């Protein structure tokens, strides 16, 4: 039995859009209870009522209510069964159970199965209304957090972690696998390779994503200040400590603490971090109270920590504590097949940020980028793209618009002295066409040898083969696909 509950015309009140959007389904086999609850809620919610499971399911499948308020006993039926079925729907409602005192244990079981809460009869309407509002607020917060997480994930896909090369796919797979765990992670790589972005991605994909991500750049602080920054201090702990200060371990409670350039910390701080990793506790400087550290540590370095251990500059026990899972961010020169994708992403973002129309890279400019060694890695690439956007006054970014380092690196034959055809004219090809042009030239210069062509292009032979398969419908490429 299902009943909708429109208000009589004389009783309708103007509601906000938010209130009108919230739907409440009341399920009870006693009509006077249904009517009483409907009267209590219909001023602020769109209320539906049903007297049995069949009627309730019909309403939920068509109206998708936000809240299900059901009695635990529905005549010969069980409200527990209704709750379980409701929670399996594609858009499950918040489930609140009504029960007599003697059935509280069963209501608790319903909560274990996924119900939000329960109320006992006789029902306190004020408490029930507060409970419904609180449940809806929490649901709204959860949706906001999911949306924020999606935006954050999209942001990082648009930044340095963008890539389709085999070496980056391995990085992505490791991040996805380690993120849900509690394991400490050590990220290694040259400056500019995206170590902090990788740490952000680990946090974003972890169960700690709704709590803070706190970053500490260890190389920027001397030892005494770093210790205070990490662990905090009590008032009067040292000269200038005029008040208690919370450290980064406390700020990152239940979240993630990112320690960048971990190889720069002194021995005293190393010992304290080792204790946190081992015992999950610490004290503020000058304090006696032991504090718990519910925090996940992700560390990063551009140095060889094993070498520092061998030189006695880094504790071996701390290295092993940090190096539970290791991720190595590859330099850009080792994944040049990602340059067109990265360049296009940065170009779009930079053009929007600088208020300029979307621009294209000329084949000459992209070729210079592919053959440049990028000592500053992805960070340098992004800066070069922004330089091009700012300096270009046409609809394209050409070689002349790029920084001097790239122009100088492109002097002479770009394909390492091999004989190649003259570069195609500056026609503003899109990146896919530019990549095809470069592959054609490399194959031509290599006499059709794919291995040699891949080496010239700075990509793996497997990636080149994949690109060739993508271009196989182009007739002018078929004649150049000679076997090795």
Structure characterization notes:
This protein is of the alpha/beta class and 484 residues long. The chain has three domains: 2-142, Response regulator (Rossmann fold, 3-Layer(aba) Sandwich); 159-330, 3-Layer(aba) Sandwich (Rossmann fold), CATH 3.40.50.300; 333-478, Helicase, Ruva Protein, domain 3 (Orthogonal Bundle), CATH 1.10.8. 46% of the residues lie in helices and 13% in strands. The chain is built from 21 helices and 17 strands. It has helices at residues 17-21, 31-41, 53-63, 79-87, 104-112, 125-157, 166-178, 195-204, 223-231, 248-251, 267-279, 305-310, 316-322, 339-353, 363-371, 377-391, 404-409, 431-445, 450-457, 461-470, 475-478; strands spanning 2-4, 23-27, 46-50, 67-71, 73-74, 77-78, 94-99, 117-120, 185-188, 213-217, 256-260, 281-282, 291-292, 296-301, 325-328, 360-361, 396-397. A six-stranded mixed sheet has the order 1-3-2-4-7-8, sandwiched between helices. Strands 10-11-14-9-15 form a five-stranded parallel sheet. Helix 3 (53-63) runs parallel beside helix 4 (79-87) and helix 19 crosses helix 20 (461-470). The protein starts with a strand and ends in a 6-residue tail after the last helix. Mean pLDDT is 81; it is low at 4-20, 156-160, 412-429 and 473-484.
């Amino acid at each position: 039995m299902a009943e909708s509950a429109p208000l009589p015309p004389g009783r309708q009140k103007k509601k906000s859009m938010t209130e009108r959007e919230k739907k409440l389904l009341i399920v009870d086999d006693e009509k006077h209870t249904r009517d009483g609850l409907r009267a209590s809620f219909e001023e602020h919610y769109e209320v539906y009522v049903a007297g049995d499971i069949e009627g309730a399911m019909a309403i939920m499948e068509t109206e998708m209510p936000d809240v299900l308020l059901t009695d635990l006993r529905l005549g010969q039926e069980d409200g527990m069964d209704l709750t379980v079925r409701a929670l399996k729907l594609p858009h499950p409602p918040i489930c609140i159970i009504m029960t007599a005192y003697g059935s509280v244990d069963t209501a608790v079981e319903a909560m274990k199965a996924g119900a939000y809460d329960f109320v006992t009869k006789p029902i306190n309407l004020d408490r029930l209304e507060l409970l419904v509002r609180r449940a809806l607020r929490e649901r709204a917060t959860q949706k906001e957090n999911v949306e924020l997480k999606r935006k954050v994930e999209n942001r990082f896909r648009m930044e340095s972690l963008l890539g389709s090369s085999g070496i980056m796919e391995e990085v992505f797979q490791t991040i996805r696998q380690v993120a849900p765990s509690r394991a400490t992670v050590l990220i290694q790589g040259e400056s500019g390779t995206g170590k902090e972005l990788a740490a952000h991605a680990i946090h974003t994909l972890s169960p700690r994503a709704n709590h803070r991500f706190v970053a500490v750049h260890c190389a920027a602080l001397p030892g005494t200040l770093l210790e205070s920054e990490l662990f905090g201090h009590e008032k009067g702990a040292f000269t200038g400590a005029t008040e208690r200060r919370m450290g980064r371990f406390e700020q990152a409670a239940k979240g993630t603490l990112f320690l960048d350039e971990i190889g720069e910390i002194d021995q005293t701080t190393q010992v304290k971090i080792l204790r946190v990793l081992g015992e999950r506790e610490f004290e503020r400087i000058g304090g006696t109270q032991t504090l718990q550290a519910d925090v996940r540590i992700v560390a990063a370095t551009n140095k060889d920590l094993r070498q520092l251990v061998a030189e006695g500059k880094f504790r071996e026990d701390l290295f092993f504590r940090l190096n539970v899972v290791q991720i190595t961010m590859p330099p850009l020169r080792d994944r040049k097949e990602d340059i067109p994708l990265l360049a296009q992403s940065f170009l779009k973002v930079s053009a929007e940020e600088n208020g300029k129309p979307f621009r294209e890279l000329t084949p000459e400019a992209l070729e210079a980028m592919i053959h440049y060694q990028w000592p500053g890695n992805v960070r340098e690439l992004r800066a070069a793209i922004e330089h091009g956007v700012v300096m270009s006054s046409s609809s394209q970014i050409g070689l002349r618009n790029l920084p001097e380092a790239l122009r100088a690196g492109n002097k002479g034959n770009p394909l390492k002295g091999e004989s190649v055809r003259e570069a195609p004219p500056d026609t503003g090809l899109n990146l896919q066409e530019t990549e095809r042009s470069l592959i054609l030239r490399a194959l031509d210069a290599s006499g059709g040898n794919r291995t040699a062509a891949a080496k010239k292009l700075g990509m793996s032979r497997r990636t080149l083969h994949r690109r060739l398969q993508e271009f196989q419908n182009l007739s002018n490429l078929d004649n150049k696909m000679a076997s090795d």
